[in-house]
Amino acid sequence: MSTILLIEQTLNGLQFGVMLFLMAAGLTLIFGVMGLINLAHGSLYMIGAFAAAAVAAATGSFILALIGSLIAAAIAGVIVEMTVIRRLYDRDHLDQVLATFALILIFSEGTRWVFGSFPLFLDKPAWLSGTVMLPFGIEYSLYRLTIILIGLAVAGGLFWMIARTRIGIQIRAGENDREMIGALGVNISRLYTLVFALGAALAGFAGALIGAIQSVQVGMGEPVLILAFVVIVIGGIGSIKGALVGAILVGLTDTLGRLLLPQFFGLFMDASAATSVGSSLSSMLIYILMAGVLLFKPSGLFGGGH
Amino acid sequence: MKRETILNAALLLILLAIPLWAQSADEPFIITLTTRAVIFAIAGVGLNFALGFGGLVSFGHAAFFGIGGYAMGILAYHAQTYTPLMEWPFVIEGTKSMPVIWLVAIITSAIVAVALGALSLRTSGVYFIMITLAFAQMFFFFTISWPTYGGEDGLSIYIRNDFPGLNTMDPIQFYAICYVILLLVLFFVYRAAHSPFGLALSAARQNEDRIQAIGQGPYRLYLTAYVISGAITGLAGALFADLNRFVSPTMFSWQTSGEIMIFVILGGVGRVFGPVAGAALFILLEHQLGGLSEFWHIYLGAILLGVVLFARGGLFGFIAGREVAHD
């Protein structure tokens, strides 16, 4: 195996991790501030991807498609928050799980009804296709590199927003004591809607970016959602830093596991057995990672006392 | 008689009457549909043991449903191809005998439940929900990428497995088997819920600190409940696989976990018979709404949303009153 392949796969893992971060950040913010577990987050990811595909088909512009995904997911988030989610903040987690599960059914079937069962295709723009030369003679997909950079930029922006802006202060205060910041005159229900819309927009944005690499189809959000759960369990619920570390850890573990495990088993097994054992085991690797983290830190790497 | 008792009896009678009527009217499809309802009810009763009595919101019971299914699939596959399951250190042959398959399904699910429960129960609340969901997903991806037993395509078993003295390919006879198992499971769960263990479990759900103060470790109570719950759902999985004569990774999917949870909620959390009502209602909705529109999941979602937001307590709560009976 060449070093170039290894570096390339490491970058792929990083790209995967950065995308997971966009999902996990929204989930963990929503849980941290409102105490809500939102299964319908995957649907917002899907809505972003479909909106991007529709806008791209209508206008031909990828930038407009990305903006469309942000707006569509945020609007969907605001509508859902104001009609359904708002009633769930005081309920127990079981009710939250069920209500948001019901939302998944409604969103998925609704999207199937509007767009049909066939996957849509969202093409990456010409100016982002092709490859780019990195140092040490590594050729890498320009689009994936752009995703990594965008993701890191969003992460940086999010950290800045939470640490430095007024809204960030309110979010952090909300995580500590919801009733107190309400008593201090912050419009708490507007803050909740805003946080939910922010999480939704991040999810929709991730959906649009990934939609250009994979196909845009109903049900694309839930596998990512479950991986994002793994990420926040590893990172610790409510922690943005934990979400970033967890996401990159999961992205790298999954991608490199798929590359390295079959080769590892190839050292002492015949080729076909090594491939099948290696690929089955690598599909379980991130869950084993999660179990390992749980053994030592039951509330995640950066988890507080939730 | 309390309204809940009347409802329980009515449910069992309806589940007995429908297939008998269908048999006389020569409607084998209705019998199969009712069999599905009964098997889903068993799976739901299993989940309800952890969810309703122990307060453990497991979103990963598809793991046990699938393990039960694959226990049947793998054993029957080896019997069907006349290949041993294992040759070393001792030979294990496949089997077509239902009781053996059930036993294997129960034991395997229980062993997996011990391992998953021991890990997941280190956490609680929302972590527990996400972790159980993630572990079920692990099995899903494992079966997809494991080529020996069909991988993504699943495994077909050509002839339903045998039960001594019965022709299991006859829908009504297979239904009878499932119905009797449901009765046994309900009886077991009722007894367990009213045993000292069940009472301690309920107490742990209501107030963990107090149960700790009187010297009962909640962890052990929860783990026992989780294992019993997983074993029952595993048994349902084996029956479901036998009903379809087919197993596939779909049994492990997160939608399956969600559906099993819907059975419990539609019926009423924490009622012994709740999941029976829920599963029957689900099958009824699936059948009626499925005929109405191809997109019947929208209606299912709307109904579920309505139940969660406005009718907490499910069907049982609606008919038999909000309070769970204390008898």
Please explain how this structure is put together.
The complex is a heterodimer of chains A (306) and B (327). Chain A is mainly alpha-helical and 306 residues long. Chain A has helices spanning 3-34, 41-59, 62-83, 93-115, 142-164, 166-176, 178-183, 188-211, 221-235, 240-266, 271-296; strands at residues 131-134, 138-141. Chain A has one domain (3-218). In chain A, α1 (3-34) crosses α9 (221-235), α2 (41-59) packs across α8 and α2 (41-59) crosses α9 (221-235). Chain A contains 11 helices and 2 strands; from the N terminus they run ααααββααααααα. Chain A has a two-stranded antiparallel sheet. Chain A is globular and about 65 Å long. A two-stranded antiparallel ribbon of chain B has the order 1-2. Chain B starts with a helix and ends in a 7-residue tail after the last helix. In chain B, 51% of the residues are buried. In chain B, α3 packs across α9 (218-244). In chain B, 72% of the residues lie in helices and 1% in strands. Chain B has a single domain (3-320), classed as ABC transporter involved in vitamin B12 uptake, BtuC (Orthogonal Bundle). By secondary structure, chain B is mainly α. The chains are: A mainly alpha (306), B mainly alpha (327). Chains A and B meet through α4, α9 and α11 of A and α5, α10 and α12 of B.
Task: Briefly characterize the structure.
The complex is a heterodimer of chains A (306) and B (327). Chain A is mostly helical and 306 residues long.
Main features:
A: 306 residues, mainly alpha, two-stranded antiparallel ribbon, 2 strands, B: 327 residues, ABC transporter involved in vitamin B12 uptake, BtuC, 13 helices, globular
Detail the topology: elements first, then pairings:
The complex is a heterodimer of chains A (306) and B (327).
Chain A: H1 3-34, H2 41-59, H3 62-83, H4 93-115, E1 131-134, E2 138-141, H5 142-164, H6 166-176, H7 178-183, H8 188-211, H9 221-235, H10 240-266, H11 271-296
Helix pairs in contact in A: 1-5, 1-6, 1-8, 1-9, 1-10, 2-3, 2-4, 2-8, 2-9, 3-8, 5-6, 9-10, 9-11, 10-11
Chain B: H1 3-24, H2 28-53, H3 62-81, H4 98-120, H5 125-145, E1 155-156, H6 171-194, H7 196-206, H8 208-213, H9 218-244, E2 246-247, H10 254-267, H11 274-292, H12 296-310, H13 314-320
Antiparallel strand pairs in B: 1-2
